[in-house]
Amino acid sequence: QVRLVESGGGLVQPGGSLRLSCTASGNIYLIKTMGWYRQAPGKERELVATITDGVTQKYADALKGRFTISGDSAKNTVYLQMNSLNPEDTAMHYCYARLLTRNNLDFDEYWGRGTQVTVSS
């Protein structure tokens, strides 16, 4: 089965930076889209950023300019560089992938278990 494993979360002061990583593993044939969503306590999960076909980037409008998504296709890994963090960025961050396995003809969606980002002084 496919697994998405996140890393890089933690505690950071306002104005600081973090770099998240997510690696997909398993019976993968082709990755269409990978990206990040986040969920703060008491709020719904929301888009942060995605990258499709290794090049096309999509960001939440409010985050564009502070956050940058990138990927390494050879490693099945996506990164999220987070700069100028503020307390409103505090949330559980989940890795997302839409991909083909070698067992299927259609794309399926997968989620990681999440990594916590806490911005506080």
Structure report:
It is a single chain. Strand 9 (91-101) and strand 10 form a beta hairpin. The strands form 2 sheets. Strands 2, 4, 5, 6, 9, 10 and 11 form a 7-stranded mixed sheet that branches. The chain is mainly β and 121 residues long. It has strands spanning 3-7, 10-12, 18-25, 28-39, 46-52, 56-59, 67-72, 77-82, 91-101, 108-111, 115-119.
Reconstruct the topology from this structure.
Elements: E1 3-7, E2 10-12, E3 18-25, E4 28-39, E5 46-52, E6 56-59, E7 67-72, E8 77-82, E9 91-101, E10 108-111, E11 115-119
Parallel strand pairs: 2-11
Antiparallel strand pairs: 1-3, 3-8, 4-5, 4-9, 5-6, 7-8, 9-10, 9-11
Concise account of the structure shown:
This protein has 121 residues and is mostly beta strands. The chain is 0% helix and 59% strand. The protein has no helices and 11 strands.
Total count of strands: 11
- Identify low-pLDDT runs: none
What is the ordering of alpha helices and beta strands?
EEEEEEEEEEE
Radius of gyration: 14 Å
Helical content stands at under 10%
- The count of helical stretches stands at 0
Percent strand: over 45%
Shape: elongated
Instruction: Find the structural class using helix and strand composition.
Output: mainly beta
Gap between N and C termini? 40 Å
Average pLDDT across residues?
96
Largest sheet: 7 strands, mixed
